[in-house]
Write a structure and sequence with these properties.
Layout: H1 5-13, H2 16-32, H3 34-37, H4 48-71, H5 81-100, H6 112-116, H7 132-156, H8 162-180, E1 192-193, E2 197-198, E3 201-202, H9 206-231, H10 234-251, H11 256-282, E4 284-285, H12 292-305, H13 310-330, H14 335-349, H15 353-361
Antiparallel strand pairs: 1-4, 2-3
Helix pairs in contact: 1-2, 1-9, 2-9, 4-9, 4-11, 4-12, 4-13, 5-7, 5-11, 7-11, 9-11, 12-13, 12-14, 12-15
Length: 369
């Protein structure tokens, strides 16, 4: 008998709390309809702000699950996942910029920043960027190719542990500096913004906002199912063995390179998809998304929620970003202090994160699902 999507997601997160989360994720697209069908005066109406913040946080949750797959299950701590998220955002942002057309400030077929910088024509790598399917292909291929090439040489050289983390941080920092340069053709420090349409539909229309929100929820659900399928399979068991004792895995005849390279590339791909969904909902993409600090935040989400648990990655992304939304408004100057304090506290006293604490309080074992 076919297993329903709800059951798969519930199993993918494993714990009782995961069942509630699985059902909640599946109901999100329906809840978003409250934004369209319920009058604004009703207490059940979802505001435009709530739809926007909810969609953004779900994109972050996808990134957190992707990070958990490489860190929690493969033992690969990446401090450069913000790069793949940003590459996906930039790839789709190129399409969005081409859709502005002559509605922009300069009434030109070129993006406004190119007109301002006196560019006469589009660079070769912008060719075809006005095609939606080509943009989707770029979202998938470019980050995956970058991750594959980087991962192949890094894993083949057996770079791991803190050295791998430092190299990934250097990689994203170098990319950020590159994208900050105006001559690279990606908008410099301002990046891409002022988007108008997707497939001819206004990007600010309520129907489009709900569509993007629903897509984010469905991709998050699919990511949880995919993650659970992988980590409970033979592949996942080998991956966990590589995390715990890589030399022993090599001794019994497995080559860790291809296992690590696959999960690393898949994780980058999931980040890129999240970035592509994030950009039209937030309305901007700039090199700041590639900053090392952004990648470190991703690791903090996973640590806070519970490394090695799919539900923990989602909870961590939601809790930290909700706290960030409140702190940056109420006490903006203290946010980074709070984030640092949170990370130190979790590292020293809550190594299992929120999920580990929950299991301890309820007499359960800290099992990595």
């Amino acid at each position: 008998m076919r297993t329903s999507l709800t059951v798969r997601i519930c199993r993918s997160i494993g714990a009782k709390g995961g069942i509630a989360l699985g059902v909640f994720v599946l109901l999100l697209p329906l809840a978003a309809a409250l934004h369209l069908v319920v009058p604004p005066a009703s207490p059940f109406h979802l505001s435009t702000y709530a739809i926007s913040v909810g969609g953004k946080i779900m994109c972050y949750a996808i990134v957190a699950v992707a990070m958990d797959l490489v860190w929690g299950y493969a033992g690969i701590l990446s401090l450069g996942h913000g790069l793949f998220f940003a590459l996906g955002g930039y790839a789709f942002g190129m399409y969005l910029m081409r859709q502005i057309g002559r509605d922009g400030s300069y009434r030109s077929d070129l993006p406004d920043f190119m007109v301002f910088l006196d560019w006469k024509e589009l660079p070769w790598y912008w060719t075809g960027s006005d095609n939606f399917l080509w943009a989707l292909l770029l979202v998938l291929v470019v980050p995956a190719l970058v991750a594959f090439l980087f991962g192949f040489f890094a894993f083949r050289s057996r770079i791991k542990g803190v050295y791998f983390s430092i190299v990934t941080q250097a990689m994203t920092f170098a990319a950020m500096l590159l994208f900050f340069r105006n001559e690279t053709g990606f908008g410099g420090n301002n990046g891409f913004t002022d988007f108008k349409r997707i497939l001819g539909h206004s990007i600010t229309a309520p129907e489009m906002r709900v569509t993007l929100f629903a897509l984010s929820a469905l991709v998050l659900a699919a990511t949880l199912v995919l993650g659970r399928t992988l980590v409970t399979s033979r592949f996942g068991r080998v991956l966990s063995a590589i995390r715990d004792a890589e030399s022993r895995v090599m001794f019994i005849g497995y080559n860790p390179l291809w296992y690590k390279l696959f999960i690393w590339t898949l994780s980058a791909l999931l980040c890129a998809i999240a970035g592509a969904l994030y950009v039209p909902q937030v309305g901007i993409i700039n090199p700041g998304e590639m900053s090392p600090a952004a990648s470190i935040e991703i690791a903090i989400w996973v640590a806070v929620g519970g490394r090695g648990t799919l539900v923990g990655a989602v909870l961590g992304a939601v809790l930290v970003n909700l706290a960030k939304s409140w702190f940056t408004v109420a006490f903006p100057e203290y946010w980074l202090f709070f984030l640092g304090f949170l990370f130190i506290t979790v590292t020293l006293y809550l190594p299992g994160g929120v999920v580990g604490l929950w299991r301890r309080l309820h007499g359960g074992k800290e099992i990595r699902s």
